[in-house]
Amino acid sequence: MSAWQGARTALAASLLAAGLVAVAPPAGACACGGIVDGPADESSVTAETAVLQWDGTTQTLVLELETLSTAPEVGLILPTPTPAEVALADPEIFRELDAITAPRAVVSGYRWWPDLGFGSTSAASAGGGAPGVDVLTEVRLGPLDVATLAATDTAALDAWLAERGFELPASVRGAIAPYVAEGWSFVAARLAPEEATTFDGTLQPLRVTFATDALVHPMRMSAAAEQTQRTRTYVLADHRMDRADPTADLAAPSVRFAGRVPPGSVGSAELAALLAAGDYVTAHEQTFTDPATQVVSDFAFVTAPSDATRSPTYAVVADKRIGPFFAGPVLAFGGVLVLSVLLVWGSRRHHAPVRAVAPRPARA
After folding, report:
1. Residue ranges per domain, the chain?
2. With CB atoms 3.0 to 4.6 Å apart as the test, which of 86, 205, 214, 304 could cross-link to 240 if both were Cys?
3. Tens of pLDDT along 269-297?
4. Is the dihedral of CA 331, 332, 338, 341 positive or negative?
């Protein structure tokens, strides 16, 4: 039995589950690809973060997903313009970029008094596929089994997945069809069975590299998603990059961050190497509450008119303290104490007895 036929875990690519506890909707599209599982199972990807870099001929896509699944077997299908090479990526790439691009706190005022509570709150050999599906490579990457596929027929791809116990929902099948028609390839991945029996949310991200004549983030499959999709893309380039695609025309994404990040300022060697090839980081965020109407294209990017920087901030109220105590009560108490001392001193002077002085005798 191949590793594909014996896999028993709940995730299929680089995943980062963040304490999700609700029951997931049925398997379907996620922001960058499609989740596939068994007919009676439920799986969901709720958020995606991606790092993208393009040198003019080759694109690097580092992908991390937040997911939830009740299925014993789940896979991810990711379209790429040409056959891709896949490797594990350093998860610190995302931790560092998240920290670097996070909004900064700016003190807008001070709190002098405490809150009194009055109202604030190993590698497998490549095998043949079904007619219409060509398995180009099949490798083991740590705990992941990853296959690179070329499909000339959506039904054949569906049959290939079905042979491995996966069911392609009708909505995802429809979303895959344009990629098949355009001659795209696909990455299919899932966890190897001997590595884990349950999903613990600690798997590494995937690094996907492929040839392309333009920077692209595959997104059309997410139009089949039935739940809200949240995306964040970090584009590493020589200059600031803007989104330029029909999806962005419908609703412009927000710019989380734009600015240069020196390679020497990060701890991840993999991130430093990516920044050495392009140190201007543009981070876009976009949420799709109705993916069927809001996602109409892949994400495309162009060089912005300028390298204007953006580092969002948020206002905070800082505590004003003297030692461990709020300054307001300390100063008020000190003022009352000084005033009391002055009053006592003044009162004592006012009521002190006057000493009589005998008059000097007059001189003769």
Report:
1. 3-102+122-305, 321-350
2. 304
3. 999 999 999 999 999 999 999 999 999 99
4. negative
